[in-house]
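Go through the following before class.
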Amino acid sequence: MYKILIVDDEPLAVVGIRSMIESLNMDLQVIDTAGNGEEALKAMEKEMPDIVLTDIKMPVMDGLKYIRTCRERYGAKKPVFIMLTSYEDFSMAKQAITYNARDYLVKVELTEELLRESMLRAMEHVGPVIDITDENAVAGSSFLYRMRDKFMISLLHDLFESEDQFRLQAQDLGLAFDHEQYICCYGELLSPRGLSLSYSQYSTLFSGCVGMLTNLVERTVPCHAITLDSSHFALIICAGGELPDTGMLLERVFSSIHNYYNVTVRCGVGIAVSSPMSICDSFQFARSAFRRSDDVNPIVQSPSNGSTNTHDAFNISLVKKELIRAFEEYDPTLLTQTVGRLIDLLNEHTHHYVQSLDLASNLLYLSISILPDGEEVLKEYFCDTADSYLSLYRMNSVVQITQWLDRYRDCMCRLFEERRRDHKNRIVSDVKKYISAHTHDKLSLNEVAAIFGVSPSYLSQLFGRYNDTGFNEYINTCKIEEAKRLLRTENHKVYEVAEILNFGSEFYFSKVFKKIQGVTPSEYLSKP
């Protein structure tokens, strides 16, 4: 897989080029984007791309200075540069060739075919890519995305057991929640082409829109975007001081999305809260405001002095322990009882249609985020309806919603029955993926257990039963495999590897290395 970095200060250009690359169906992966040369250099410190597509005229650091700096730091061979130009940049593009840029493309004339030909030339120059990312690492990356989705859904619905658990998971996922204020938004994307697109095409469209949304908002203020299903999203806006005018910001962003994708966005904006643990309240207000949006008023903001009391009886956080346990352990009996309680609650309040729809959709989002293939499972189970599981949003009464919930419960229970026997082994499998992706961190049984919501003793027992080695031994084995790569492939010194992998000292690292490999690191390096 050839790794691509896109550098351009125009968000629309970044999104368009990224979508075009993905549509090529080539062995290419966009690993990052940047708005100028300085940002691109920082991105390269995290992960080195094989190919860089960069604009020339950019603020802070332009494309020529960026490519010149790269050549000074990394030499002439890698990465391969493709310059993105306008007609008036042509002379500058020719100058970039002197810095060993391999190609240039005129943005206004760019087509998929021209991009494909340029990429083929760049790939040929790079040569065969030695992919050190094995299947376990790829699975680990997918697993971390799932962990992030689960974290965000837990944040929106107040599903954390404690603030300590929230802080630990946020830190582990590299998510910053140290701001002074937060506002949550809830929105829906509406495309006139929706019915004519295949599921895959619509998913690509939705992904592109959410990507543009995130990119444009982040240019003004930090944010986190969460995909809830194939039509709905949540956006958490963070501010270190005074919040921007959220309505005006979203109006500009949604206008750009409409102009580029011909997609209309309707959105509700929640109240400002000062603690990340109160983001769930802002989300509830955003959901309430969203219901008042329409074509005339696509963005509706919540009153600053509102109350969430009307939602309390329908908030799934009231049964959060039961729901999380049912999903984590694939327990069909517990799920049947818990969803049954919620259905009984709705039947007692048949005039609360809006709150009932909220509750059902929140269960839907929870399923999609927690289960590794939740959306695919639901889509298949509801395949006999025109819009699959999204048929929920066509329900016109509480009675219809409870009928949908009955079917949802049946779907989940069947799935749980099929997978329950393997759920303990799945925990071990997920922990192993996590460890493989965090070999540079200092890992402990207590912290990893907390991240996965199980006790340290239980995790230790599971490892002993479903793995060939114990927990600590498995960590050391993964670290030593990474150490071998750092020593041989990246030519690090022994003391540097000991520090990178958090062994505490070179002596202890060498001791562990010899125990696992049978030789010291120095002896390992001396072998051919």
Observations:
- The domain at 176-311 is CATH 3.30.70.270 (Alpha-Beta Plaits).
- The mean pLDDT is 84.
- The chain has three domains: 2-126, 133-174+313-467, 176-311.
